[in-house]
Design goal:
Blueprint (H helix, E strand, L loop, with lengths): L4 H15 L3 H11 L4 H16 L1 H11 L8 H16 L5 H15 L2 H17 L10 H9 L3 H11 L1 H10 L6 E5 L6 H10 L3 E4 L6 E6 L6 H4 L3 E3 L2 H9 L7 E4 L6 H9 L5 E6 L2 H13 L5 E5 L14 E7 L13 H5 L2 H18 L3 E11 L8 H9 L4 E3 L2 H5 L2 H4 L4 E2 L2 E4 L9 E8 L7
Helix pairs in contact: 1-2, 1-3, 1-5, 3-5, 4-5, 5-6, 5-7, 6-7, 9-10, 13-14
Bound molecules: S-adenosylmethionine.
């Protein structure tokens, strides 16, 4: 008999949870190698991401029912986390089905003692209910357990944004972001795509972040012909805002220094209407191939890719070459925890510091490649000031040539101009603000002469 969805989920959880594999890669691999039907694919993904995202909460729960959890074999511990996750958070799965499935998996993988333990713990949890976290002290520990965020990270968010906001951020990381797609305006208008999707049974609305964006409230876009035909691309709304704020004009020459897998490069190329050129770089050829593939799927012929370290691009290009530059920098990824939950357990404060040094070097090397009247967008999918506004502040304080483009703030969509994340050095979008990823972006330019100068 072929493996059940839960058995597949357990395999991935053991590899990710205890052996440091990347969840999204293993999920893709499992979906590719196994013919799960579309409903099972959804359940499988939900089980892996959901359990992983709640790992610290589930570990606390398990401690209430098993004395020495450290002695459990890894797969038994993850089987119990997986089952607790379903009992606590998934209404659509009946409790008895959760217990039966767990016992069946235990029978296949372990001896009679383990089967008894799994059965006993799950039945006890159902009888007794799961613990409350209200009395856990101090508050950082409570929030850490309640939202399954490592304590150091919780403390970091509290230091940066205060207790209330930090709690909202950590809680939002447990809730799915709105699904969004970007319409390829070279092929169809946003309105026509929206109407067609509604006719086909989807629930769709226009995104306030981008003139090309649609929010998909119901319906599986991966199964719609628009996806294979390159009419829509899956992209978070915050990423679409980058294309919007680049103020691209036909025939421009654009540099995208960190471009793989190509979401923003292809948006920029679409905005050029296949004119001009987007020079797209990333560290390795394996990565730039992904950009080539995406470009071909969307019918774009104005993208040139090459594998190269962004910190060496000054060896390839003269100063003042580009009309527009995008540095969508490698970052800690604390804005995309809900789709890559392993991030919160594996990244360290040292990683944040190291990344900020790379980001700083990138800015230093690449900024001079901008034309005198050009615009450079720096963005990350994180919410750490060290990689975002503090980095920009430090970069600008060490020189006299560049500034934050003041029109960046007035050109933002109106609802964002008022948002809590507006700082003098750019816009921080938090995951609890608008049901999107957490994201930072800012726009830099050469200092403009004022009347007094
Ligand atoms: C945030 S991702 C880019 C996402 C991409 N802009 C998109 O929209 O699809 C950051 C990228 O930077 C790349 N990267 C990391 N270090 C780099 C370096 N030194 N030079 C160039 N690219 C680098 C990573 O491989 C990764 O693909």
């Amino acid at each position: 008999m072929s493996k059940t969805v839960r058995a597949h989920a357990l395999d991935v959880l053991v590899k990710v949870g205890d052996n440091g594999a990347f969840s999204h890669l293993l999920i893709d691999q499992t979906l590719k190698n196994n013919a799960l039907d579309i409903r099972d694919q959804g359940l499988f993904t939900e089980l892996v991401y959901g359990t992983l995202n709640r790992k610290l909460t589930l570990a606390y729960d398990l401690d209430q029912f098993v004395k020495k959890t450290g002695k459990l074999q890894s797969w038994v511990k993850w089987l119990l986390y997986l089952s607790f996750y379903q009992l606590k958070y998934l209404d659509k799965v009946p409790d008895h089905a959760v217990v039966n499935e767990a016992v069946e998996i235990a029978k296949k993988r372990g001896h009679q003692g383990i089967v008894k333990l799994v059965n006993g713990v799950l039945r006890q949890a159902l009888r007794q209910g799961f613990p409350s976290y209200e009395t856990i002290e101090p508050v950082t520990k409570r929030l850490s357990i309640e939202t399954s965020t490592p304590e150091w990270l919780m403390e970091r968010w509290i230091d940066s944004y205060g207790l209330e906001k930090a709690e909202k951020i950590a809680t939002a990381q447990l809730i799915k972001a709105d699904k969004a797609v970007r319409v390829n305006l070279l092929k169809m208008t946003r309105e026509d795509v929206k109407q067609q999707l509604i006719e086909d049974g989807f629930e769709v609305e226009a995104s306030p972040f981008s003139s090309k964006g649609l929010i998909i409230n119901a319906g599986n876009i991966l199964k719609h012909p628009f996806f294979d035909e390159g009419i829509v691309t899956i992209q978070d709304q915050t990423s679409m805002l980058v294309g919007e704020m680049m103020a691209v004009e036909k025939d421009q020459v654009i540099l995208d220094s960190c471009s793989a897998p190509g979401g923003k490069t292809t948006d920029l190329a679409e905005r050029l209407s296949n004119t001009g050129r987007v020079y797209s770089y990333d560290l390795h050829e394996k990565k730039t191939t992904l950009v080539d593939k995406k470009a071909a799927q969307l019918g774009l012929i104005n993208i040139k890719t090459k594998a190269m370290d962004a910190r060496e691009l000054d060896q390839l290009f003269e100063v003042k070459t580009f009309d527009r530059i995008l540095i969508d920098a490698p970052c800690s990824g604390f804005g995309v925890i809900r789709t890559k939950p392993d991030i919160k357990y594996t990244k360290t404060s040292e990683d944040v510091l190291n990344l900020s040094m790379i980001q700083f070097d990138m800015l230093n090397t690449i900024m001079p490649l901008l034309k005198e009247d050009g615009k450079l967008i720096y963005s990350t999918c994180t919410i750490d000031p060290t990689e975002n506004e503090a980095l920009i502040a430090e970069f600008l304080s060490g020189q006299t040539r560049y500034e934050v483009d003041p029109t960046f703030f007035t050109e933002l969509p109106a609802f964002l101009q008022q948002s809590v994340g507006v700082t003098p050095f750019g816009l921080q979008i938090f995951p609890d603000d608008f049901h999107t990823d957490g994201f930072f972006l800012t726009r830099l330019q050469y200092k403009q002469a004022t009347d007094e100068t």
